[in-house]
Amino acid sequence: MKINEIKIQNFKRFTDLTIANIPENIKLVLMTGVNGSGKSCIFDAFEVSSIMKETEGGFAFHDNKEYYSKNKDIQSKIQIKFCNNELISLTNESGGNVEIIKKSNIFYGRSSLRQVPQLTKISTKRQINFEQDSDRPRIYIERDERFENDIEKISKTFLREVYTLKGITVDELANKYISKINQGFKRIFGENETTSLSLLSIIPSLEGNPPEIKFKKGNSEIHYNLLSSGEKEIFNLLLNLFSRSELYQDSIYFIDELDLHLNTNLQFTLLKEIVENWIPQKCQLWTASHSFGFIDFAREYENAVILDFNEKDFDIPQTISPCIKSSLDVFEVVIPKETIFKLFDNKKIFLCENLNDKFYNYLNIDKVVFIGVKDCRTLFLTIKKEKDYYGLRDRDFLTDIEKQKIEKKYPFYKILNYYCFENYIYHPDNIEELNLSGFNKQGYLNEIIRQKNQKLDYILTDIKLSRNNYEELKEEKIKETDISSIISSLKSDLIEEFFKFFSIKDKFNKEYLNKWNLQIERLVKTTWFNEKINEILL
Fold first, then answer.
1. Is 24 helix (H, G, I), strand (E, B) or coil?
2. Is 187 in contact with 277 (CB distance < 8 Å)?
3. Quick one: which of 373, 284, 290, 288 has its CA closest to 325?
4. Residue 415 in contact with residue 395, Cβ under 8 Å?
5. Alpha-carbon distance 200 to 174, whole Å?
6. What is the pLDDT of residues 320-369, one digit of tens each?
7. Can you say how many angstroms the Cα of residue 349 is from the centroid of all Cα atoms in its chain?
């Protein structure tokens, strides 16, 4: 299931909210905003819809207006439209119109109150209907106590399979239950022996004692109770999804404050791991956060949208659509612009394309710091709007005259002399400086020229189409109608001519360089690269 649109009226924080235009391919919906901006209220709407789906009776919060209804004297409504055009439409008044999908397990949610500091629960005979998620919190200010139930469920399933499955050893079966979690740990925590974490064993509750779970960290064996809060949080989430995701293969997952207790790097790797390896392909994950790591992953992940709840007056009707992920404004909830300039006091902040800031920053240029944005359009519009930023743009198909006019009109805006960043790092002069064994500069240059001439007709047909998308050429008296200079340069076999317009990134097959296993981190640390970029910035 994938959500396309949500309409909510008189519900908790919202007077009249519409969330619209979520594309069908979206697997991650990240809601951002300051505390109290209404993000978690969306999860209560999902929970209400989940209960309605089960009961098919009156609206689930009919008897709890004080908690759910913003104004108890007015009817409350929730409408959720899915990408397949199915609809959930609910009201909380008797006789109100109620439409539900005749399908089980549409929603699966986790409360933010799910931390279990130590294992205390002993085995009980209380029956839990996992298919109906009967142990979930009913409102999202209640504690989520499913973690220890998951331990009990997995333990019972393991023991059942020990006695029923033939042709499989106990060790093989134990590996089945442990290996997936350990693979997830490795991708989240990394493989550094001092910081990595691996699950060793899960011993169920026996003889009136709580369960015992052991981990390995470095050379130490550690009990669950001694893990950090962040480590417990991650294990809690992975174990829960391992235990229950098979019941929710075509559903909406919603997890509040998924980033609890985590540093920025773990925020990024956890969300990446959950989205890519634990949420089933037909499903969609909704989560709320104001963490840098989550926003950074959502910006990079193609099948993600960001919904900005920040500074919205929800006492009046509001419509929220996915924001432009490449804009620096998505980070405003984490790091206000004023703070950015304080952090980099007395430094020029250069925005650059394609998130290449990591590599430009390797140059360690005095009093310069680079911040990456997605594309040249975002870069240019930000420079126009925010006068305190500088910009470094790929050249693409800009003529010499256009480049001069743009840089003259916008002095803080610099344009590469070659087509793109890759033209610098893979330039024959740059690679020559590495003194690679067996590298022949002239042979490499000949291969570039050969591929350039082979693809020349294709490149020439691409010029006009590409130039139509350049925001800079919409400026008055900037655009040239005559592009013969570009064509002439491309037809030349002089590298300083054709490298201005031939894309090493997209149009050159780098198989010729494979045997040297060149890393970008090494290519950007040469004297040649440093001098060429400094020439542009000065």
1. coil
2. yes
3. 373
4. yes
5. 10
6. 999 877 666 676 666 666 666 666 777 888 999 877 888 999 998 888 98
7. 24
Q: Report how far residue 31's alpha carbon sits from residue 40's, in angstroms, rounded to the nearest whole number.
A: 9
Other Cβ atoms closer than 10 A to 103: 11
Closest by CA to 505, choosing from 520, 516, 527, 486, is 520
Count of beta carbons in the 10 Å neighbourhood of residue 362: 17
Residue 309 and residue 43 in contact, taking contact as beta carbons nearer than 8 Å:
no
- Residue pLDDT, tens place only, 86-144: 888 888 765 555 666 767 788 998 888 887 878 877 766 667 888 788 888 777 777 88
Measured CA to CA, the distance from residue 202 to residue 224 in angstroms comes to: 10
CA distances from 450 to 422, 428, 488, 509 (A): 18, 14, 17, 11
What pLDDT, on a 0 to 100 scale, did the predictor assign at position 64?
A: 65
Q: What angle is formed at CA 285 by the lines to CA 282 and CA 287, rounded to 5 degrees?
A: 175
Q: Please report which helix (H) or strand (E) contains residue 28, including its range.
A: strand 28-32
Provide DSSP, 71-108. Answer: STTS--EEEEEETTS-EEEEESSTT---B--S-S--EE
Any bridge partners for residue 81, and if so which?
A: 5, 87
Tokens of 124: 């009980």
- Report CA dihedral (377, 523, 268, 1) to the nearest 10 degrees: 60
Domains and CATH numbers, the chain: 3-331 (3.40.50), 337-537 (no CATH)
- The burial class, CB within 10 Å (0-12 / 13-18 / 19+), for 407 is middle
User: What is the enclosing helix (H) or strand (E) of 30?
Assistant: strand 28-32
Which tokens is 192 given? Answer: 């550094």
> Which among 57, 143, 129, 120 has a CA at the least distance from the CA of 92?
57
Q: Cα–chain-centroid distance for residue 533?
A: 30
CA–CA separation, 3 and 85 (whole Å): 9
Q: Mean pLDDT, to the nearest integer, of 401-409? A: 96
Q: Specify the length of the chain in residues.
A: 538
Please give the structure tokens belonging to residue 92: 């909380």
Which helix (DSSP H) or strand (DSSP E) does residue 486 occupy?
helix 484-491
Q: Is there a contact between 419 and 395 (Cβ–Cβ < 8 Å)?
A: yes
Contact 216, 162 (CB under 8 A): no
For the chain, give me the number of helices (H) and strands (E)?
Answer: 20, 17
pTM: 0.68
Tokens of 116: 């279990």
Beta pairing, strands 252-256 & 284-288: parallel
Of 8-12, 225-229, 500-504, highest mean pLDDT: 500-504
- How confident is the model over 268-294, as pLDDT tens digits? 999 999 999 999 999 999 998 888 888
| Cα–Cα distance, 371 to 387 (Å, whole number) | 15
Residue showing tokens 């002095």:
411
As a whole number, the mean pLDDT across the chain is 86
Cα–Cα distance, 84 to 72 (Å, whole number):
33
* pLDDT (0 to 100) of residue 102: 64
The residue behind tokens 């924001």 is: 323
Helix (H, G, I), strand (E, B) or coil at 320: strand
* Token pair belonging to 194: 């001092």
